[in-house]
Amino acid sequence: MTDLNQTLFDRARQVIPGGVNSPVRAFRAVGGTPRFVKRAQGAYFWDANDKRYIDYIGSWGPMILGHGHPAVLQAVQKAAMDGFSFGAPTEREIELVEALLKLMPSMDMVRLVSSGTEAGMSALRLARGATGRSKIIKFEGCYHGHADALLVKAGSGLATFGNPTSAGVPPEVVQHTLVLEYNNITQLEEAFALHGKELACLMIEPIAGNMNFVRASVPFMKRCRELCTQHGALLVFDEVMTGCRVALGSAQSVYAQSIPGFEPDVTVLGKVIGGGMPLAAFGGKRAVMEQLAPLGPVYQAGTLSGNPVATACGLATLHEISKPGFFDALSAKTRSLVDGLTQAAKKTGVPFSADCQGGMFGFFLLPELPQNYAKVMTSDSPRFNKLFHGLLDRGVYIAPALYEAGFVSSAHTDQDIADTVAAAEEVFASL
Catalytic: which of 143, 182, 397, 403? Predict the structure, then answer.
């Protein structure tokens, strides 16, 4: 039988670099042929060969309701009938922003954009414009989109700034980006002591989904907030992945439970707030946000920003996830999956650790949860590749990369989770 996934991949590689439009889709890390999706519904998608998979990437996070939720489909279809794009303001943009402000009181104003990269890049420019400073702190293993200044690996010490991680990024573009170790309070304090007066912002993923799933510890996050306040730098929360995914109020609401009065200065959002359509946002306090054009000197613009179809999709999604009990039920499903995988690994003697929050989870083939990028990198890559393909063969689709988080939707059933755990136990036994 002809493998239509392979046929499509061969065809794609002739006209698209690597055959894909985003690198991780190419399966280069795990080997094999990418699955070309034909259609999706609920917690499943079907590939070009019509094989069904239980989907745990959910478009890398946005599909918190699963694919094709009726209320979302209805809202999108109605909006599309009224027009795809206007290049002029609409009431729905206001409604979406007002909904976000209710969920995250750290923000007074929000600007809508079309992608997480665009939101992160704009937030960084805003922080520099609002503070009049150039230098920024980010953390090794955190990903904030592919803007030049944020594609950085760690330098050789605290006094030196990062080096580009991508060709095409000149060293001088990242000369103001300081890369620190995640969850290292001593390093954080030393960095502020050395550069505090020059720092525009500290940008962080509160739960680093691009290290699979690594939480910023409460003491570390508390110190980030204190040092930013003390030195006049802005604390920028990149919640593209965690926003309205780990909790209705996002990761910042989770930290506020342990740190009284905790708030970031600027929040970057994406994924869930667009419900699967290209939509993202960044927001903060009024005094900071009013630095944006046309009110202030910081320029930012976008032809498709606040797209009427995307905002309809986002609003319908936010309406559904705001219903009472939604996150309690989603969290219980995710915890059931994580606990089941942990028990399956324990039965078969495979080193395994896992964590979750809301509808986001991650696991490592390590006996303990890592706290930083260096430890994440010690995970067993060859064994993970076998696990990935073993699950894939059994109709379970997880991220085709060792360092990417997974996502559970409200459409996943108890049977889906039981089937996933049973498949994992079979694969663990063969590792």
Answer: 143
